[in-house]
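To: structure desk
From: M.T.
Subject: fold request, one chain
Message: Could you run this one when you get a chance? Sequence is below, nothing fancy, just the single chain.
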Amino acid sequence: MTARGWALFIALSVLWGIPYLFIKIAVETLSPAMVVWVRVALGAAILLPIVLARGDIKRLNMTDWSWIVVFAFVEIALPFGALSYAEIRLSSSTTAILIAAVPIVAAVIGWRIGIDDRVTKSRAIGLAIGVLGVATLVGIDIRGDDWLSVAALGITVVGYAFGPMIVATKLSRAPALTVITMALLINTLVYAPLAWVTRPSESVPGEAWLSVVILGVFCTALAFIAFFALIAEAGPSRTTVITFIAPAVALMLGVAILSEPITWGIVVGFPLVILGSYLATRKGPSVEAEPHA
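Reply: Done. Structure tokens follow.
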């Protein structure tokens, strides 16, 4: 990967490593719908003037608009909502580590739809190790009444795995900044009535509002700019590898700021998930073309 690719990789790993902390703080007093709505609305408000100034919206055709709607729901609406809901009960550390399964799911999807490398022995082993890591974390740390939150994270994982593939295969020629801005606007409209219905009836601490502002400005607007740039630089499967570092950032912040415990599930499961994700997303050895007669 190029120096630019590494810079984008590190920036995006941090920008998508800190949301778990701020989501956890926000959902203590705000509904998941309100958290998502403020987040996407701020992101759209920041990016829309740039897009309008460039005049890129007119470059979108009807096919682009159709896939933007799909992307809006697959990458933002469902994952953001499910993630915020899950963090009502789960710690930010556990949530981030479970999200680290994204590269594993992305590898499976890539194999199935034929846009990723062939299955190799090492990648199959990586898949098995990653699944074992997730199972270990869930088996040790998840209580019986937390399973609905785990199921919600499953929605987030699948959405995050599919999102980069939609961009790379269906929206690669569309203006990237315009795509994400329109997707954020769509979600602003979708979540507006839900946010209104679940609006707070009591005073909300300033740290909760500050958290959603950070989520909207840094973890959404700036992060998606880096997201599209990294997809163009390294490809969709490589882009999901940000989950190697993002969970570590989330884990450190959860322990340092929220005093979340480092459990045996994390100690055993986290390394397995990361190792499995690494092996599952490794490029296989190149296969030389057969000589033609």
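Reply (cont.): Confidence is low (pLDDT under 50) at residues 285-293. Let me know if you need anything else for the meeting.
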